[in-house]
Amino acid sequence: MTTISRRRTAGPERPDRRGKDLDRGPWRGTVREYDLIKELVYALVVVGLLTVGLAAVVGSPDDAPVTLQQWATTAPSDFVATATAELGGTSDTAQYGPPYNSTQGASQTLGPIDLQSLSGVRLPIDTAQDFVVGPLETLPQPPAGLAVWNAASDTQRTDWTAAYSDALSKAPDGDPAKVAAGNYGPVPGLDSALLVMAQKGALEGALDGGTAAGLDRTKTVLFLGDGTYFPGLADSQHLTGDQWGMMNETGNYPGQSWLWLFSFWYQIPPFNSLANADLVIVGIMVLLTLALMFLPFIPGLRSIPRLIPIHRLIWRDYYRRR
Amino acid sequence: MSAEQGSGSRIVSWTGRFRERSLKALPPEKLLPETQPSYVASWIYVFGMGSIAALGYVIVSGCVLALNGPAWYHVSAFGHFINSTHLWSVELFFMFMVIHLWGKFWMASWRGGRALTWITGVLAFVVSIVTAFTGYLLQTNFDSEWIAFQAKDALNAVGVGAWFNVANLGQILMWHIVLLPLAVGAVVVLHVLLVRAHGVVPPLEAAETDSQLRNLQLRDAAGTLETGEGDLS
User: Can you tell me the distance from the alpha carbon of A240 to that of A248, in angstroms, rounded to the nearest whole number?
Assistant: First the structure.
């Protein structure tokens, strides 16, 4: 086969047609020596030096996790207010919806799309039972108020916890010791017993591990998140969602900077005030990812590299010697 | 494809056919060539290999951490150093991969039947992001604790929170050291094989009149005239 004879018989070719032929077939032009194994070895040496150097000089962060004991000791008022909300079923977790419970209207929806409910209640959590009553029942000497609580009707329990939550919010610094007198039933006693249990470091195991060492910390994390102490610590480290927290790391270390676009949507209206922001933003990111993935088939987008000639820089040596 | 072996006997086994097809698609000289087209002359080309090198360090440091458990680095200075190399090799991996991705975008490197190469590259990037995310959840420190609390909402909103429970250390550990590395490894290997099979995409607007091609064509034509082959009429 000769190139000349093929071109004569094929007739005059358009430049774009010739370009497509060149793209598709094996390269028949000049070549240069290129040692892939040497390139790999050099890359391993350079990247190795960079990795070891950065690890030795900069290191990595390791702030100790927050424990329930720490929370109960440092911010007992917040702990008691949160425990009351868990008992009364008014905490974020209690009203979260799937996969923790079946609270009506709590799932994030987009029109008729309700993916959250589709999964069902697969990690069932009854905050009163799982976060307060259950752990207290594991104590060698459970508080006497437990029997009163267990014998009461749902309405009575709701009234007690609502009244106590209201009283706590009005007390100076939310201090349980300064709450006005009222009909709170066994709630203050249960809260107080749970506080002592947490301060002694016994609550974490009762929540997620029982007597066995647990790997699943779901209940502990949710309980911590229902309060204000744990989110407050995250806020002070610029880790919350409205602080680009998704891509931040504790201290001055680089975090998951590749999540910048995901995080970006949470910073701007209308997304930062949507009740279904998570669902909407995940949907946007899925669409953008698919667009990037199938970009070769999207007219207009696939032409951007031709319209903005950055390739002229990349292949400047080739174009110079055309 | 010829189904004949060198000895003349016909290849009937699946193994033989698979070997023949594999060798046809990717012969050794194509898999590990000693030359590249003359246009492969830019620093942008090194970032693909840089990504592979960084991934190597991610895997090696991850294996050392796996041998000692996720809490080891809290109590051991050497463990903390290995954890740091894991972190920084991941950071370098993403940096190189993003530069590689942008470079390939501006080169429109999906041309000439290379769309699957582009797609596997993007897929490698996406799966790597998920893998890194699970790694951040395994730090067993304040950061991972907060990420677990914060990230659950997006996962629950799309209905996968029970199978990807970010507060369940055991579940996330399995995702991070078994399922996702398998996915990353498979996609990266496929991507590299596709790159080798299709070769490096030629420059945009390249034409057969370019000197890098014309000289060889003239030589090709001269050789044809000498041997009397070809139809120049």
Answer: 9
